[in-house]
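Lab channel / #folding
Pinned by the channel admin:
"Please post every new chain as: sequence first, then the structure tokens as a reply. Keep commentary short and put observations after the output so the thread stays searchable."

First post following the new format, from NK:
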Amino acid sequence: MKELSEKVKKFGAEHYKLQENEHKCPVVISKGKGVWVEDADGNKLLDACAGYSSVNLGHMNPEIDGLIRELLTPDKDGWGLPCVVPNSTPTEPYAEFVEYACVFLGADKMLAKNGGVESVDTAIKLMRKWGAVKKIRYVRHGNAEIVVCERNFHGRTIAAISASTNPEYRDPFGPLTPGFIPILYGDAQALERTLEEHPNVVGFLVEPIQGEGGVNIPHEGYLRKCYELCRKHDVVFCADEIQTGLGRTGKLLACSHEGVEPDIFILGKSLGGGRIPTSATFAKKDFMVFTPGEDGSTHGGNALAMSVARKVLEIIERDKLCERSAEMGEYLLGKLKHGLTRGPAKMLIKEVRGRGLMIGIDLAQGVNARAMITALLTHGVMTKDAHHVIRITPPLIIAKAECDELVKRILRTFRDVACEYEMCTCKKKTR
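Reply from TO:
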């Protein structure tokens, strides 16, 4: 593995801090199956990250991989699935998927792209265009504003980082795109004040649960109140469901927990089954206001991506993965709360929270989240930190026995680290 990691360090861009094992060697993953991955040294790791919720159906899903093999196998005459064609001549898989997805997800229109942040940019353009058309009294050329939330994460394009409040994402990359007003997440009154003070606001862009922000779950009624405020002030309610959608929180869309039907919502990550990069912006008819030439994508909506995306939705529906996520999430959250809030581990914990299989372990002040990720890796758990929170987001196909194994490994990790903390504290006291 060391040889492979050296290649990554030498030739790869340093846009991510590589995760190291206990030997200070960056981990390189070689294969995966179900909820498990294996590194290049043969160590098996329970995947509690699922590719930032991209691998909801697990690694090496036989139906997804089987479909891809089938689609890329030519017929007896050498014909097969078309590659990229002009958007003006859509493929059969696109035509089938766009209808299926809109009906299944409760949308009127869809625009496909290649990754979540592309679809975020699409949504931003839609909100601005809608405002220019519908709120012309207030919105002039170039002065439309969109309300966003502090500690959000919508991606890393210039528009997305301009909407961010994280200096790490923003500061080195100016000049930034104007037109974003940040408010406190979870504070509906802050949104109300902003809408009253800024008549040129055209949209509110929000994550139903903040993932990169630290698995921040707003209080009950927040999304509903924000949606009602958007209706009152004639503003677009846009939900970024890239991490939360397609069953991750126990519902098809996380907004559904409060009965909210967004004007625009964005899906990505798991839409491609963990194999094919694809995403889409969905909207009610009145909010898909593009005219020909105003938006598009060369590879967005390609035949392979649309075929896989349809299979993903079919599996979610047939296998009741939303219900499974709710059931397994409740079980896993309960076991983690029980184990981490008592005994030696509790000294490391501030809170354990979650919805469905989107769970966060909020660490006590002074506990190094990155060090905890390395410790978990040593005990055979692969996951990610978000600020001072450990994210637990395994594939939705995780079984009860695998939940038990995950809990066992997490508890063992926290107990070992807690003992080390206690030893260090005792040594300091005796000096």
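NK: The CA atoms of residues 112 and 280 lie 4 Å apart.
TO: also worth noting, Residues 2-60+321-430 form a domain with the Aspartate Aminotransferase, domain 1 fold (CATH 3.90.1150.10).
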